[in-house]
Design goal:
Layout lengths: L11 E4 L2 E4 L5 H8 L5 H22 L7 E7 L7 E2 L5 E9 L2 E3 L4 E3 L4 E4 L12 E7 L6 H15 L7 E4 L2 E4 L17 H7 L7
Antiparallel strand pairs: 1-2, 3-9, 4-8, 5-6, 5-9, 7-8, 10-11
Helix pairs in contact: 1-3, 2-3
Length: about 210
């Protein structure tokens, strides 16, 4: 029986040559969601599913979500008084360059949802990749509702009932993409419309 490590997986892992992003959910959390222990083979499959679900979530939201990271981002200028950054939980604005010129961050107002505005009232460049910002952002831990959503996504593929390809409940139609445990892993883990509606609260405006 696999001993579950309560710590998150490393930032990068190597799975038969495959490199991937850290998951927002631990294997232990997924096992708890399923209310079962995972043997070696099932843990391997579950890890692929959870990582796939987490990747789908971060790609839809447009940023990493958790944990808190300090990084440099390059974005297109808006050409307006409002400039946005790819985050929905900005902790600190460390630096801003506009068209190669370093700005005084003390003269820039910013909010947690990644919106910046110059106190002078002047507009931002419209140049492609004209803004380079050093930011500290993300949630310290994955919000509980995001953990549950990712587990639900991975769980739908992991425990798909045999012979059922679609079912409806509460006005929502679910099309299954997986197979029962022990069969080959499903090709994809997909976001349902209800998943997207929930994630819209932390999605970077496009």
């Amino acid at each position: 029986m696999l001993s579950l490590d309560p710590k998150p997986w490393p930032l990068f892992y190597d799975l038969e040559g495959r490199r991937g992003m850290s998951s927002l959910v631990t294997l232990e959390e997924f096992a708890g969601y399923l209310k079962r222990d995972l043997d070696e083979f099932d843990a391997y499959t579950a890890k692929l599913l959870v990582d796939g679900a987490a990747e789908a979530v971060t790609e839809y939201c447009g940023w990493h979500i958790a944990p808190i990271l300090t990084e440099t981002v390059s974005v297109d200028g808006t050409g307006t008084r409002i400039q946005t950054l790819p985050t929905m939980n900005l902790v600190e604005l460390d630096s801003v360059d506009e068209n190669g010129l370093t700005l005084d961050v003390a003269r820039i107002d910013w909010s947690a949802n990644g919106v910046m505005e110059k106190r002078s009232g002047s507009g931002w460049t419209a140049r492609r990749r004209g803004i380079i910002a050093g930011i500290t952002h993300g949630f310290e831990v994955t919000p509980a509702w995001v953990v549950t959503l990712i587990c639900a996504m991975a769980g739908r593929a992991y425990v798909t009932p045999l012979g059922i390809v679609q079912e409806s409940s509460g006005g929502e139609s679910i099309t299954y993409t997986g197979t029962r445990p022990g069969a080959a892993p499903p090709a994809t883990v997909t976001l349902l419309p209800i998943d997207r509606r929930m994630l819209d609260r932390i999605r970077v405006p496009m």
